[in-house]
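Let us practice reading a record.
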Amino acid sequence: MPSRSNAALIYYTAGLPSTVSAGSPLLFGNIAYPFNGSYSLGSSSGISFGITPAHNGLFSEENNNGIEWAAGPGIGGTALLYNGNILKFANGSSISAGSASNWTSSDPGFAQDGQAGNWNAGGSGFAGLRYNAGAGNYFYGWVEMNYNAAADTVTVSRFAFQDVANIAAPTSIPEPGQVAASLLLLGGIGGYVAWKRRQNNRPSVQTA
């Protein structure tokens, strides 16, 4: 069994936040595996995934490359939600195998006509992610975003993955001091830094 005490949650923030309008994809790509904080925003190579706002809805990009989304069942007759409606998680949630009845890479929809975890209600939320590493092993994570249904835009703030397989990923925002320290030590958001575990044995944090 993996040890939670050895896990680190890696935050990816370079080039973010970024806002995209309906019909224009926002790709997250070229994520290094094993997860070490290296990636290129907008690349379709490597471990990549993305989102595209559509009229009154969102859907994941094709070619998720091993990335699966936490979703509910598909809804027949709805083009955006046919392959599943992506769930919306609040800050302080925990993304793990039991977070969804359906984990899918088949381009599920985020929102349509008020469906899909109330994304249409607006405000920031978290979509659960996991990377399928094979042999029943998954690296859990999330992407934080704000969907504006009226404007058909979405703003992505950051995303994160655990660097140890089969460990839950808490939806949390890095403390300002952690980000500032990573910038001081590494000279830019493009790097990452591991943080000592706190006394309550929460995972350490890395910032990319």
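A brief commentary: The helical segments are 176-186.
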